[in-house]
Every structure is written in C-alpha cells, then in structure tokens.
Amino acid sequence: MRVRLASPWEPMRITATAPVVDGRVIPDVPSRLSAQGASKDIPMIIGTNLEEWKLFDLADPNKDKLDRAEVVRRLSEFVPADLATNVYERYAQARARP
C-alpha cells in the first residue's frame, strides 16, 4: 500500500487518513484483512456528510477546469479504474436528480 500526503495535482493534502501497515497493530492492508473475515464481528458505521468535500475542494485551484476524464483519472489513484468510472457515473446521475 502506497501512502502519499498529496497527489501531483494537489498543492497540499489537508488530512492524511490512510492506515499505516506496521506488521503488528495493523498486520496487513485493512481491506485484505476484512475480506479474510478479520472484521466480521466488529460493528461498522458508514456515512457521509453533505458538505464535507468542500474543505478538500479548496486545495485544488484547478477544480473548475476538470472534465470527466480527469476526474476518473484522479479517482483511479484511490480505487480501481472500473470502479472510478462507476463512481463518476453514479455521482453524475445523483447530481442530475431534482
């Protein structure tokens, strides 16, 4: 797992919230551990905040010039490319609803 504090297109990263695989407290990549059942008995809360991303939005002075291809490329740094495309499409659909 590669952890970066900022992507090439970001002037800065406001937070660094990636887990650190240290071999002891976190023995492997968390998603791999979870897929192996390590977290099956641990309750989880998943959610989002409507305006949360606006904080990160401030860090990219070129945000208004992004096209679909660039957004998908950036998302692909964090998730597999096919998922990045799906995330973009679903987000666009959700934003298009009244």
Structure, described:
This protein starts with about 30 loop residues before the first helix and ends with a helix. The protein has two domains: about 1-45, no CATH class; about 45-95, no CATH class. The mean pLDDT is about 80. α3 crosses α4. The protein has helices spanning about 30-35, 55, 70-75, 80-95. With about 100 residues, it is mostly helical. It is elongated. Helix content is about 35%, strand content about 0%.
Element layout with pairings:
Blueprint: H1 30-35, H2 53-57, H3 68-75, H4 81-96
Helix pairs in contact: 3-4
Low-confidence stretches: none
Globular, elongated, flat, extended or rod-shaped: what is the shape? elongated
Question: Taking Cα atoms only, what radius of gyration do you get, to the nearest Å?
Answer: 16 Å
Q: State the separation between the terminal residues, measured CA to CA.
A: 39 Å
- Biggest sheet architecture: none
Mean pLDDT: 79
- In sequence order, what are the helices and strands, one letter per element? HHHH
Structural class: mainly alpha
Q: Domain count, please report it.
A: 2
Supply the number of helical segments. Answer: 4
The number of E-state strands comes to 0
Helix proportion range: 25-40%
Notable characteristics:
4 helices; mainly alpha; 98 residues; elongated
Task: Describe, in short, the structure shown.
This protein is an all-alpha fold and 98 residues long. It contains four helices and no strands. It has two domains: 46 residues, no CATH class; 50 residues, no CATH class.
